[in-house]
Amino acid sequence: MEVTAGAQRRRRPIRAGLAALALLTIGLAALAAVSLRPHAVKPLTFTAGSSGTARTVFAEALASGVGGRVVETTGIPDALEQVETGSIDVALVPGTFRFGDLPHVRQVATLHFAALHLLVKAELASDFADSLTALRGKTIDLGVQGRPEFGIAAALLDFVGIRPESRSSPEGFVPRALAPSDLLASLAGQKRDALPDVIFLLETLPSPIVQTLVEKHSYRLVPIPFADAFAMSALTHEWRTIASSHPSIQGLQREFVYDTIIPADTYGIDPPVPPIPLHTLGARILLVARDDVDADTIEQLIDVVYHTRLAQTTHPALDVSLLRLPPELPLHRGTIAYLKRDQPLITGAATSALSAVLSGSGAFFGASLFLWQWYRQRVRRQREQTFESYIRKVAAIERQVGELERGDSLEVAPLLELQRELARLKNEALERFSSGELEGRELISGFLTHVNDARDFVGQLIVYVRNSSGQNAAARSNSGEAVRSQAIADAEEPPRDASGAARDTNRG
To answer: Is the pTM of this model over 0.90?
Structure first.
């Protein structure tokens, strides 16, 4: 029973480990079930500013994809303010501008380009064949302050050295400021001669307003082929408030102005408008949302943006790689979660780091394995030496018994002392084995056989000496060799019962 109890104690860590592994497996399965459970999309309110623009059409398609709705705002600053206050969930706004005090507005996704359309009356188009210096002395509609085209157009004119008309600059341009809705109204109610010579509009492609200007009022597009030079000028120009006095848009960020192409024939076939692909300045449209919009809803909104047919309606098509462009606003937590979800489990950096760790730890694990094998062998050797020490002690007792046998006479007292020592060694070895201090069933079995044989022989000698103590003096003076021979003979002859028949006995 002692050996069985020791084995049970050794099995307890294994059972505890299996139980912990089972609990961990159940926990991981439950976590996976919760994380894979589909989440309901919260209905969202969208805005793209004023109605009638291509940006609004895109917003309506996006809202229908997630069961939301589109509301109209007076402009980009108004849209941003309503997202900041929570009146609207999501807005589509042009980037490139430094956004002001909007601590709750977050960038969700990067969308298509809004192109800066530089439109001039058809009869003036030839004047712009070589440069934009023909803008001097023209009536130019920059758009109203607060609209993104105003900021980019004003910065562009400043970049090419054209100033508004003044006493110091009599050849400067004459500024006009019309909102798109006012521009459309003036197109319907005024004679063409009263319309601006030049109109700047920042619109996504194709723009309904630009289409009207081209088809009904004979405006033509002029290229702006120096977008890269304009963007690099951010290194030499100080930040200035160009866009408006509105606190939501505080200045143009030229590093976020991109070279954009308006494809040939976008606004007309006969005559072609433009006749060839036309380079101009462009700004990325940003999808922004309030920071408390549910992260799961934002993730599903991103899926609609990049992984449905809606992504193919823009030129160029939208791709999820746009999320990796430098953000112009802090990213929404839903966007961050989406980016982490699409990251590969093993990246190049992770592979390099893993390779370094493995190369550095290979020697460590090799040395650890060597030390572990050495330790096991040492423990095994110590265990074997422990049993050897017990066997040597039993052998020493057997030698003492032999010396007593070779003496002139045998006495019971020393034999009893040796028998008690054998019993003590046996009990001590069994206790250490049952407690786990000693291991090795073969070793303990061999030791017990050895010690039991020795105890049996000593016991037989004691019985013989006691039986011989009542005989005559001549018998007591028999030599030890004679006593030993008689004891061996008695040991080989099985005991008999009262009837004289031989019977079996259990030794030990």
So the answer is: no
Q: Considering only the C-alpha atoms of the chain, give the largest distance between any 2 of them, rounded to a whole number of Å.
A: 160
Paired sense of beta strands 90-94 and 249-252, if any = unpaired
DSSP alpha helices (H): ranges in 143-286? Answer: 148-159, 180-189, 208-217, 227-232
CA-to-CA distance for 419 and 401, rounded, in angstroms?
Answer: 10
Q: Tell how far CA 351 is from the center of its chain.
A: 15
Q: Supply the Cα-derived Rg of the chain in whole angstroms.
A: 50
pLDDT number for residue 277: 94
**Nearest by Cα to 295 from 323, 332, 251, 346:** 332
Asked if residues 187 and 212 have their Cβ atoms less than 8 Å apart, the reply is yes
3-state helix, strand, coil in the chain (%, to 5): 55, 15, 30
The predicted-structure confidence for 219-258, as pLDDT tens digits, reads as follows 999 999 988 888 887 666 544 434 344 444 457 778 888 8
Where do runs of H (alpha helix) occur along 318-440?
A: 333-342, 348-405, 412-434
Residues 384-417: tens digit of each pLDDT: 667 677 788 888 888 888 887 777 777 888 888 8
SS3 409: coil
Sign of CA dihedral 459, 465, 469, 470: positive
Cβ contact 36:296 at 8 Å: no
Q: How far apart are CA 245 and CA 177, in angstroms?
A: 15
Distance CA 459, CA 428 (A): 20
Return the closest-CA partner of residue 152 out of 51, 244, 289.
Answer: 244
Any residues with CB less than 8 A from the CB of 82 and at least 6 apart, and which? 47, 73, 88, 91
Place of tokens 């143009």: 252
